[in-house]
Structure formats: structure tokens, C-alpha cells
Give the backbone structure.
Amino acid sequence: MSYAIVWSENGEAVRAGRLELAGGSLRLCGSPGRELAYADVAAARIDRHPALRLAGRPTLLIESRAGDSFRVASLEGAGTLNELAERLQSALVT
């Protein structure tokens, strides 16, 4: 599954790209991209706090076990961020 997103790693500059949920990892595709194994994800939750928004949109906050944080905002419309969060949570459990 692939989603059009904007994302930021550790509070750095916002990048445009896509998020792909693959067999054993999630991929943040952009320039540069990142790949994070599901086993390395410590937490994932939707954050609607205005200070943490990207492009004015609610974000999915993904925290790695190594201490990195990724903020992801969907560009695909209402409900897509919830769908993405649910699919990611399902992938983390399996």
C-alpha cells in the first residue's frame, strides 16, 4: 500500500513523497528516503496538536526504538491518516 505524504524526521525540513507499507518495514520515500523495520517501531499515534502539524494537517507520529521520530501527514484527503495508522498498527502486531 502506498500513500502520498509530507514527512519530517526528527523535526528537520518537511519532505514530500510517499509512505509504503511493505512486508517487514515501512518506507518513507522522498529525497532522501528512509526505511524502518516494523520491529524497530516503538510507538505510532495520531497527533492533532496544532504545533506538530505538517502542512496544516494532523500527523501520524512514529517513534523508533533508536529514538528517532517521524511526523507524517497524508495528502490524500480526510480519513486517510486514520486508515494509514490502522494499517501500520496491524503490521506492527503481526
